[in-house]
Design goal:
Blueprint (H helix, E strand, L loop, with lengths): L14 E2 L5 E2 L1 E5 L28 H14 L4 E5 L9 H9 L6 E6 L4 H10 L4 E5 L5 H8 L4 H13 L6 E5 L9 H11 L2 E5 L18 H9 L4 E3 L10 E9 L5 E7 L12 E4 L4 E3 L8 E2 H6 L4 H13 L19 H4 L2
Parallel strand pairs: 3-4, 3-12, 4-5, 5-6, 6-7, 7-8, 8-11
Antiparallel strand pairs: 1-2, 9-10, 10-11, 12-13, 13-14
Bound molecules: S-adenosylmethionine and iron/sulfur cluster.
The site of S-adenosylmethionine has 20 residues, from strand 5, strand 7 and helix 10.
């Protein structure tokens, strides 16, 4: 659905919304496909993938990212998916994005499998960092959770990314009741040992199967209690800003940069941070979403293919963001899970 014109929308260049937020962080999904099948994300048989002709081409992705950077004040780009390492044009897309002015910060969220192959090339063309999903350190559990036996590939990928200088390597972990909810301490110990920065993410109702149940979610507070049974955590004195993770310093440990080691918790469900959200999202088929949980999308692919000029596209993007809701409303009785799953939106 296209965003409606609204005469109250101010004439400013950036991506502002009615609640005074300014989106400067763009998540770009490069594919909805994946080589894993994490149970909290996708069904075993996969999904009906987006038809190829609806996917933005590499040039179209770069065109839209350029408009975001040059006209809309976006300063940070994160490529994601699905699994972005499966996108054949990834290195060229990152390279072209790194050449933009002003140069945005560039990162990729990945399951890590493709890093052994690609980390060096990505670092060479200007990628700054990677966020790697790692929910368990136990091979059997990994196979049950991701439905593929690829833990060793992920661990090798992490080392390769670190050696390529994609630092700090950040780890994302989702804990699930009865599956890996006893691994918070092990995951943090592993991260501290290797100088990776770990963040736990509360499981959100964004799975394709619509099987999420609040009772199964391991809440941020519970994760912190587990960590505190072994580590001393003190609140990170740095301002959180728009960052979704609330971070703690882990007493007695030092990160790769010589600063105190940190651990983060993204409590999207129990402590939503929507009021400070600075995200805008572009799906692999060229739709702008102003929120992970939004039902509305604005079709930029149609505009690009109809030959719209940069300013028309930029203005459609601004209109899309102006309509952003105050919050995701998971706790609202009228909450409806978005029809697109996380893997198709771009997590
Ligand atoms: N395939 C890449 C990966 O796994 O990192 C990128 C896409 S994935 C959708 C992005 C992030 O979303 C991952 O860290 C994953 O753990 C997280 N994620 C997926 N489904 C989720 C859910 N239902 N709740 C919370 N996080 C989820
Ligand atoms: Fe793939 Fe990432 Fe979803 Fe796992 S979380 S199935 S790796 S897209």
């Amino acid at each position: 659905m296209q965003a409606q014109e609204d005469s109250t929308r101010p004439s400013v260049s950036g991506l502002v919304d009615r609640f005074g937020r300014m989106a400067m962080d763009l998540r770009v999904s490069l594919t909805d496909r994946c080589n894993l099948r994490c149970t909290y994300c996708m069904p075993e048989e996969g999904l009906a993938w987006l038809p190829k002709q609806t996917l933005l081409t590499d040039d179209e992705v770069v065109q839209l990212v350029r408009i975001a950077v040059e006209r809309l004040g976006v300063t940070e780009i994160r490529f994601t998916g699905g699994e972005p390492m499966l996108r054949p044009g990834l290195v060229k897309i990152v390279s072209d994005t790194a050449a933009l002015s002003p140069r945005p910060k560039l990162s990729v969220t990945t399951n890590g499998i493709g890093l052994t192959r690609l980390a060096g090339a990505l670092a060479a063309v200007g990628l700054d960092r990677v966020n790697v999903s790692l929910d368990t350190l136990r091979p059997g559990r990994f196979e049950a959770l991701a439905r593929r036996s690829r833990l060793e590939d992920v661990l090798t990928g992490l080392r390769t990314a670190d050696e390529a200088g994609l630092r700090p390597v950040k780890l994302n972990a989702v804990l699930m009741r009865g599956i890996n909810d006893d691994e918070a301490v092990d995951l943090l110990s592993f991260a501290l040992e290797h100088g990776y920065e770990l963040r736990f993410i509360e499981q959100m109702p964004l799975d394709a199967q619509h099987a999420w149940r609040r009772e199964d979610m391991v809440a941020g507070e519970e994760i912190l209690a587990q960590l505190r049974s072994v580590f001393t955590l003190t609140p990170d004195p740095h301002l959180r800003g728009a960052a979704p993770a609330e971070t703690w310093l882990v007493d007695g440990f030092v990160g790769m940069d010589g600063e105190p080691a940190k651990v983060g918790v993204i409590a999207s469900v129990t402590q939503p941070f929507c009021g400070a959200c600075d995200r805008t999202r572009l799906t692999a088929d060229g739709q702008v979403r102003n929120c992970l949980f939004s039902e509305d999308e604005t079709d930029l692919r149609g505009l690009v293919r109809a030959g719209a000029d940069d300013e028309m596209i930029a203005d459609a993007w601004r209109a899309a963001m102006w309509g952003k809701r105050a919050g995701h409303g998971i706790d609202d009785p009228t909450f409806l899970q978005p029809s697109r799953p996380m893997s198709a939106i771009g997590g």
